[in-house]
Amino acid sequence: MNLANLGLSAMNAAQNRLQTAGHNLNNATTEGYNRQTVLVQTAGAKATAAGYIGRGVQAVTVQRAYDGFLYKQLADAQSKGASITSYGNEIVQINNLFADRTVGITPALQKFFDGLQAVASEPADSAARQELLGRAASLVGQINDANAFLNDQRGNINTQISTVVEQVNSYVVRIRDLNTKIVEARASSSQHEPNDLLDQRDQLLTELNQLVGVKSFEQDGRINLSIGNGQMLLGADTVYPLRAQPSADDPQRTVVAYTIVDNSGNAHGIELDESRITGGKLAGLLQYRHEALDTVQNNLGRLAMGLAHAMNDAHGNGVDLAGDPATDFFSVGPVTVLPSGSNSAGAPTVTVTLDDVNGLTADDYRISVERDSGGNPVAFQLTTLPGGAVQSFPTSSPAQVSVGGITIALSNGAPGPGSAADRWLIQPTRAAGTTLKLEITDPAKIAAATPGTGTANGDNALAMAKLQTEKTLGNGSMSFNEAYSQIVNKVGVLTQQNGTEAKATATLIQQNFSAQQAVSGVNLNEEYVQLMQFQEQFRAASKLIDVSSSLFDTLLNLR
User: Fold this and answer.
1) What is the pLDDT of residue 559?
2) Which residues pair with 52 in a beta bridge?
């Protein structure tokens, strides 16, 4: 090993270090980039009579500064943060809708009952009667508008879910492609890692986790991905795309499904259990929908149904200005029953009767079929949503069960045979905010008087006005004002919780990011110092070659 070769090996090592330092500097602000370092070692030594003389230096590989534990901590925190942010973007909208008590439903309720008091005081005053109808129409309009806003938000969430699912599928395909490139790169150079490709794949995985939380594990150089309860998104080189599709229970509700392939090679979408989807924007949207939006809309519907039925019952006790029996003051649509799109032919018909508006809850219900090991129906099951409480009742005709102020009856059919997944979704109050309507348009039709007391009597109007403070909802626990206040408080608490979680998670993300960057980040000052050091090494190696050349020339000049 001569001096020239020693200098050349040192120059090559210094050049590799300079190039790597430059690569670090160029990517200092690149998302997901991990600082790289050239690992070098002695090239060994040659045994001589004078001892072992060193052969110089050689570059072994380029290593990225990577800590898998710190990476996972940061990715998990960012995934949780994305979920909280998407939830917060939605909850703040209905908080703004319901929180202002100077406009909206609260003052409309107050003005409506003030109008009833005015009619009770002056039952023959046509102006007071007309004012009452105006205030009643305003109240109905406020409830209709609030519910319309919630329906619009529900549609927007459906759209966002579809968009996120498309983005998730795109990321999975890109990760699959990078898997292939990484495996090929490792095969072509088994001793070295394709650091930049690994960084790109980790960054894609980080961004994917901000869309939806996924579980990942590496096998044979490839990252495999799963979601929910272990449903595969990426296995080896095969992508199992997610689907955004209408729920079989509720066609107006977009749900997430995973893909399975049957024996004939046909792909089918199977709905995912939403409670199993955690992390990322998708989880935040789903959590908001079932935790906040469904509950708020059902409670608003309960208020609408309670108002309509309580007013109609009280109004029906009186007579109008002409002494005629009262008609309904308000109207509201029936309980919503949604048969599953997968129900078998000849499945029973479900009818729902409202027994007691005071007993209504904000729950929905699902009716399904309980079967024995042979697939034979043995009972119907009633599942309370979202609580999940289950109770069984016999299939004997007429099969019926009472719950939450309603009676559900199944008739004119029988559960399908074998594995038929017959089921029905019952939404007692969901649509009531939309269907609430003022039925009286003629002020003279207001039944302010009790029968037999003369049309100028206002006793029945007074009885209707007293409904403002009577406990007509929640099994005698709430008045109309209290029922609406419960909605406002629910939204306020959820908004506050989300804000608190957002602050805590932002702090956690920053801490994890700082810890990860301390290991993997590029320090510009440090790289600059190393550039100076590597430059001096290159110069010294060049000088070694120059010395070798001078010595060789000296030898040639000897005679």
Assistant:
1) 60
2) 47
